[in-house]
Amino acid sequence: MSESQQSSSQTAKPVTAFSSLALKSELITNLDTMGYQTMTPIQAESLPLILTGQDVIGQAKTGSGKTAAFGLGLLHKLDVKRFRIQSVVLCPTRELADQVAKEIRTLARGIHNIKVLTLCGGVPMGPQIGSLEHGAHIIVGTPGRITDHLSRGRLDLSHVNMLILDEADRMLEMGFQDAVDQILAEMPIERQTLLFSATFPKQIKKMTESIMYSPKRVTVKETHNSDSIEQHFYRLKTNDERMQALQLLILDKQPQSAVVFCNTKRETQQVADELADRGFSALAIHGDLEQRDRDRVLLQFANKSINILVATDVAARGLDIDSLDAVFNYHLAFDAEVHTHRVGRTGRAGCKGSAYTFFNEHGYITELIAESLGREITNEELPPLSTLDIFPPAPLMKTIQIDGGKKQKLRPGDILGALTNGNDLTGAQIGKIHITDIRAFVAVEQALAKKALRKITSGKIKGRTFRAWLV
User: How many structural domains compose the chain?
Assistant: First the structure.
C-alpha cells in the first residue's frame, strides 16, 4: 500500500450529519426516529468511504460507534430481494457477535424482511442448522463456528459482497488466523472488505496487505476525554504486595464497578478467588470459562450484582463494560497502546474515572505511557493499612434466575408486572431484566432480593408458576 492509501486524514473537517450521506431513505428515517442525527468521528471518517465501495481499515476503540459505521454500510449495499448471504461480520467472541447482530437489526428496522443470523460457538448447533436451512442475508459470527458449518456444507458464501472483520487484533490474539483464511477462501475475491481494530500490530498490517485492495485507513482518537481520567501509579515487586495494594485501594476508593486487569488466565482466576475469599464482590472472566459461566459473570457485572470483574485483556475486549468507576492494572500491560485501551474503559460519557497501575520498575512501556500523559510517572503512596478495617463495597443489586424464557413466551414486562403487583416492590427497585431462550434473569435491590424471590416462586407469571433462585 502507498502512503496515500494508508491514511485518510483530511484537512477539511468531515460533515457529521447522517442526512448528508447518500444512504437509503429508510435508513435515514430510522436513524431519525432513534434520535441519531450526528455521526461520531469514526462514522464521519469511514462511512463516506464505505458507501463508495472502498476497502477501509478503521482503528477505533470500543464505544466509538464503529458497529453503526459498518452496519449502515452493509445495510445500504444489501439487496433484500436476493435471498442469499451477502454480508459476513466476523467477531472474536459470542458476546461481541450478539451485540453486533442486535445493533444491525435495530439499524435495519425501517427495511422489511431482512434476516440477520448469528452463528457462534458455546450454543447448540441444532437451531443454527435449522435457521441456515431457511436462509439469511447477513451472517454475524465467530470464526470457529462459521468454519464448522462450512466444513459440513451448510453455508454458502459464494454471493458475499461485503466482509467485515471486527476487533481483528483480538481475533489474531485468540489464534483465529487459520479459520479466517478458511472463510476467506469460500468468498468471492471481488468483494468489499472492512477491518476494524482497536490496535494495529504487525500481524494486522500483514493481514490487510493480503486480503484488502487499496484500503483507506481511518484512525480516530479515544472517544473519552483523557482529562476525565485520573491515573495513579504504584511501584511494587511481589504478588503479595500487589494483592494487599489492590485491597487497600478498593477499600479506600469504594468503587461500585471496577475491572482488574491481569496478564494471564491463571492469574485472573487467582486474583478473583483471593478477593472473594477476603469478602470482596469479585468474579473472574477468561478464556478457560465455559460459555454458560462466562455469560452469567458478564450478566451479573452488567446488572450491578457484582462490583469487581477480574479479566484478561482478551476476555474484556468488545464487552459492554464502559461505565466504570475505576480500572486496576494488577500488572503493567505488555504494550503501551493496550494500557491506554484498558484505562479508556473509565471516564466515559462525561463521567470522571480513575486508573490505578502497579509496575515493577521504569522501562520502555512506562516511558511510552509517560510520553502519552505528558508527565513523568512517579511512585505514589498507598492508603494506610488502617484502611483494611473498612468493609468492602457491597453490590447494589442481586440477581434472580427464573426457570423460563422466550420459549415460555416470557417478556420483561411480565416479570416486572409480577414483581410490582402489590405495594411492596416498585419499578425503581428493579434493575435489568435479561431473557434467553430458556432462562430469565432479573436484578433487584440487594435488601429486597429475598422478598422478590418469594413473590416469584409463590406467585404466578402469565398464569404459570416458575422455579427461581438467587444467583
Answer: 3
Boundary (domain end) residue, out of 191, 219, 247: 219
Q: What is the four-CA torsion angle of 363, 369, 372, 377, rounded to 10 degrees?
A: -80
Rounded Cα–Cα distance for residues 148 and 152 (Å): 7
Distance CA 283, CA 192 (A): 41
Tell me the torsion sign for CA atoms 319, 323, 328, 332.
positive
> Judging by DSSP bridges, how do beta strands 397-402 and 440-445 pair with one another?
antiparallel
Q: Where are the alpha helices (DSSP H) in 18-65?
A: 25-33, 41-51
In a shared domain, residues 173 and 295 = no
Q: Are 258 and 359 within one domain? A: yes
Q: Looking at the structure, do residues 243 and 353 belong to the same domain, yes or no? A: yes
Name 183's Cβ contacts closer than 8 Å, sequence gap at least 6.
Answer: 88, 90, 143, 146, 147, 150, 157
**Residue 92: half-sphere exposure toward Cβ, Cα within 13 Å:** 24
CA torsion angle 58 62 63 64 (round to 10): -20
CB atoms within 10 A of CB 243: 17
Single residue among 368, 389, 410 that ends a domain in this structure:
389
Taking 70 as the pLDDT cut, the residues of the chain under it are 1-15, 61-63, 221-227, 317-323, 348-350
Q: Are 197 and 58 in contact (CB under 8 A)?
A: yes
Q: Strand ranges (DSSP E) for 208-363? A: 216-219, 229-235, 258-262, 282-285, 308-312, 326-329, 353-359
Q: Do residues 138 and 89 touch, judged by C-beta distance below 8 A?
A: yes
- Measured from the Cβ of residue 303, the count of other Cβ atoms closer than 10 Å reads 21
**Identity (one letter) of the amino acid at 262?**
C
Residue 166's pLDDT is: 93
The reported pLDDT for the residue numbered 95 is: 81
pLDDT at 15: 57
Expressed as residue numbers, the domain containing 461 is 397-470
DSSP state of 20: G
**What is the model's pLDDT at position 315?**
72
| Residue 312: strand pairing partners | 262
For residue 142, what are the CA distances in angstroms to 42, 90, 93, 166? 24, 6, 6, 10
Residue 400 burial (CB count, 10 A): 26
DSSP bridge partners of 358? 234
Q: What is the CATH number of the domain that holds 210?
A: 3.40.50.300
C-alpha cell at 18: 447522517
Residues 6+ apart with CB under 8 A from 338: 199, 313
403 and 315 together in one domain: no
Residue 458: which CATH number? Answer: 3.30.70.330
Number of neighbouring beta carbons within 10 Å of residue 112: 8
